[in-house]
Design a protein that fits this description.
The structure is a single chain. By secondary structure, the chain is of the alpha/beta class. It has a single domain, classed as Peroxisomal Thiolase, Chain A, domain 1. It is about 40% helix and about 20% strand. It is globular. The structure holds 3-hydroxy-3-methylglutaryl-coenzyme A. The site of 3-hydroxy-3-methylglutaryl-coenzyme A has 30 residues, from α2, α6, α7 and β12. 3-hydroxy-3-methylglutaryl-coenzyme A (HMG) binds next to α2, α6, α7 and β12.
């Protein structure tokens, strides 16, 4: 069986940043602690005036191709995941490949180009498609470029405004990868849900509180399905567990659920029982509501145990470090979480070769997916090339008034003119509209 996985990663953050506890919270009459303690967010990235999903995706992909020395002739697929598309027919991948052709001096004439949509899980689905294409042999030795790019903006005044962000993650999916190999086994949970959707509208209709519950319940089902299709998971086996990060507080919730799931029937469960008592069972309660309340109390006790806290610090905390400063990048978020843990491991000089990662993706509407990845020889050198922290540090901070203006600039129903807030250099930018109404781009 071929070994297929991620062989290169490059990240592009929107060039502006909004300080959530110190600038946004006081301006909308909220307490900073809602962000620092509740949601776990400090800043989020925003696109400058001439940035959008195409420029961010093309910039991430271009950087990947240059730093990994990828010959465009070795690319056989370009798959773009986004839920922020401005074109219902022409895929964003063609806009991006058009940008790349402007500077690479090669055309992507014989590639399979396409865009995939399923809320935040589409990035993972693009990796799946590339994986299957390579496994089948239809790639004929070529690799796939997967780009997850989004501007996660909510309508002004919507509670979702607290959890925005913008950026792109480009990944090279190849045979004999040098970062991680993907497992063949997967677990799924999929339902027809309306927790978050955009029925022909730019900004989402979202039932935030419900979306949190749907995320948790589908992730639990996907974990169960993964075990049914493979084997009982051993929590000690996983070095990191990156979950989709709409905001880090969500990961706090799903992590304890995952921990409880993976320790079921193990010696850890026995140890926990000695400290916080047995896990509540349905038959001990008079109804479902009472049972759920019992579970909530049990989870609170579990979260406070030293056993859990040590695991969380080692396995989960490194996965949310980028998102705490970048916000939600929708399709890119779970891939930021993987990158965050690998960058942390490289910094801490951890020996990861052969070690496993459990990845939990989620997309509203709704679907959760679980798979594992094995870290491969060469990962450290590749991961050290990811310069996301330098980008986050060099973003231009927004005042609240500038934030309001930049939100309007990216609102399709408004015609707002604003001078660029940053300088563009060696990057793709939006140029204007063409005669067919298409968006056009140039490299500056
Ligand atoms: P909200 O009403 O803005 O915030 O909604 P809240 O009042 O629920 O507070 C948030 C947390 O901060 C709570 O913590 C508060 O207790 C705490 P929790 O109880 O949940 O643990 N808090 C404080 N803590 C300390 N001191 C304080 C304080 N004040 C509050 N003073 C919500 C938050 C996330 C629902 C909202 O921002 C939203 O609707 N966001 C968009 C939807 C979303 O992100 N959903 C996540 C799951 S669905 C998903 O991940 C898919 C998605 O990425 C889209 C896709 O798939 O395409 C969104």
């Amino acid at each position: 069986m071929k070994s297929v996985g991620i062989d290169g990663i490059s990240i592009w953050s929107g060039k502006l940043s909004l300080d959530l506890p110190n600038v946004f919270a006081p301006s909308v009459g909220e307490e900073p602690e809602k962000y620092t303690k509740g949601l776990g967010l400090y800043t989020c990235s925003f696109p400058d005036v001439r940035e959008d999903i195409v420029t961010m995706g093309a910039n991430a992909a271009y950087k990947l191709m240059i730093k990994e020395g990828i010959d465009p002739r070795d690319i056989g697929r370009i798959d773009v995941a986004t839920e922020s598309s401005f074109d219902a027919s022409k895929p964003i991948s063609t806009y991006i490949s058009g940008c790349l052709e402007q500077v690479l001096g090669e055309e992507f004439r014989n590639v399979n180009n396409g865009e995939r949509k399923f809320a935040c899980i589409a990035g993972t689905q693009c990796i799946d498609d590339a994986h299957n294409w390579i496994l089948s042999g239809r790639n004929e030795g070529k690799s796939a470029l997967v780009i997850a790019t989004d501007t996660a903006l909510y309508e002004r005044g919507n509670p979702g405004e607290a959890t925005q962000g913008a950026g792109a993650v480009a990944m090279l999916i190849a045979e004999d990868p040098s970062i991680v190999e993907l497992s063949l086994k997967q677990g799924y949970s999929s339902v027809d849900e309306t927790d978050f959707l955009k029925p022909n509208q730019q900004f989402p209709s979202v039932d935030g509180k419900r979306s949190v519950q749907v995320y948790l319940s589908l992730m639990k089902e996907a974990l169960t399905n993964f075990e049914e299709r493979s084997e009982k998971m051993d929590i000690a086996e996983f070095e990191f567990v990156p979950f989709h990060v709409p905001f880090p507080g969500m990961v706090r919730k799903v992590a304890s659920l995952g921990y409880r799931h993976m320790t079921r029937g193990t010696s850890i469960e026995e140890e926990l029982e000695k400290i916080i008592g047995p896990k509540p069972e349905m038959e001990e309660f008079s109804g479902h509501e009472e049972y759920m309340e019992g579970i909530r109390k049990y989870m609170k006790l579990l979260d406070k145990t030293e056993l859990y806290q040590k695991w969380y610090k080692r396995v989960i905390e490194p996965t949310i470090e980028i998102s705490e400063r970048a916000g939600n990048w929708y399709t890119g978020s779970v891939h930021l979480a993987r990158a965050s843990s690998l960058i942390y491991a490289a910094k801490e000089k951890l020996n990861l070769v052969g070690k496993k990662i459990l990845v939990g993706s989620y997309g509203s509407g709704a679907q959760a997916e679980i798979h594992t990845e094995t870290v491969k020889e060469g990962w450290e050198g590749k991961v050290k090339k990811i310069d996301i922290y330098e980008q986050l540090d060099s973003r231009r901070p927004l005042s609240f008034e500038e934030y309001e203006q930049i939100h309007d600039v990216h609102n399709y129903s408004k015609d707002t003119l604003l001078t660029d807030l940053t300088e563009y250099k060696n990057e793709f930018v939006f140029k204007g509209y063409g005669k067919m109404g298409e968006r056009t781009y140039e490299f500056v």
